[in-house]
Amino acid sequence: MSSETTFRRRITPTERLYFATRELAPPFLMQLAVHGQGTLDPADLQRAVDVASAANPGSRLVRDGAEWVDTGVAATVRVVAGHSLTYPGLENDPVLNSPIGPTPDRTCEVLLLTADPVTIVFRVFHGVMDGMGVRMWVDDVFRALRGVEPFGAPDPVADAELVARIGAPGKPSVLLPIYPSAAGRGAQDPGESPWLLRHRTVAATGRGIVARVAAVLADAAQAKSRFMIPVDLRRHDPALRSTANLALPLFLDVTPGDTWESVNDQLRAGLKENRELNQMDNGGLTAFPPAVVRAVLRAGNWVGARLGRNLVSATVSHLGVFDLTEMAVPGFTPVSIRVLPQHSGMMPLLFGIVESAGRLEITVSCRNGAGVEPRLEALLDRLVSTLERELAASAAR
Predict the structure, then answer these.
(1) Residue-range definition of the domain harbouring residue 372
(2) Among 10, 32, 112, 200, which one is most buried in terms of CB atoms within 10 A?
(3) How many helices (H) and strands (E) are present in the chain, helices listed first?
(4) In this model, does residue 252 exceed pLDDT 70?
């Protein structure tokens, strides 16, 4: 590592928390899968990753004490011959569960799965990027594959610095472990996977997707529920180009029977009042030693699994619309794109949503436990049928 490296930034409280989470829920990666038709030359993909990563140095970081520092070395493209993702039980996929490579200190990796459908999987430790940061890097990889100049994200700015500059308008939300999960609770079996990772495609799209999902989940839980909605802080500085963690939560409290319109009004009001800025290091957990943080996370997982009491009922994250036609390159045409959310012991449900080709691709990480799997499958079926019915009715008006 050269002493002349110019890109470095402080590790923020949010990111320090993710180190502890990675120990409890390895590999704690955000993974974005692009399924396509055709073939890709691994060398061409590696060159594109090299070009895009030079423009997005936040994809080349390793830890150096209290800082992230750019190694100057792009993520490695790893070819996994003859493999395709293990649907429907993605939690059992050996590749998705494998450590990032080629060395333990690396934070980003790209997989090329050669079985049908050919799939590119972008893997990122959440400690260096948020979901929109991943998207910025991925978009630039596909620009480079097409021979287009990457947009780039050269700014070494993360959430703590931006919030300190903007200021917070109020106080943090009070976090109490009182909220249910729509997938229910159940004691965890040490012989089973602690988490489930399942996917659904919704053959429709439209307005208010996050609010609609929250309304369905609260109705299914038949109890007041709280939802964590990650908000992209880049909205406060449109000139900022950074792949770092720049998302803070907006909390929505939803009662069974609330319409999606009322949930959406609550979401819009929170955004207008900039309430997400109040949540920087909410609870101050990162001030404690790592062993204490890990103990708190383990306890939170046990209370959620056994008693059904959670700080939030679910996280619902929407990464926006992808134009698959613009991502096509000679010899390879993307047909779907899916965000595969990381597992987290403190979170009973974490939904990752993207839109492409007039469809919603919804993937959920769910805390596993006795009886949870069939309830999760029924919940996802209900979510899909409700969304398709509502969105079709809305389009017909």
Answers:
(1) 8-152+174-396
(2) 32
(3) 9, 14
(4) yes
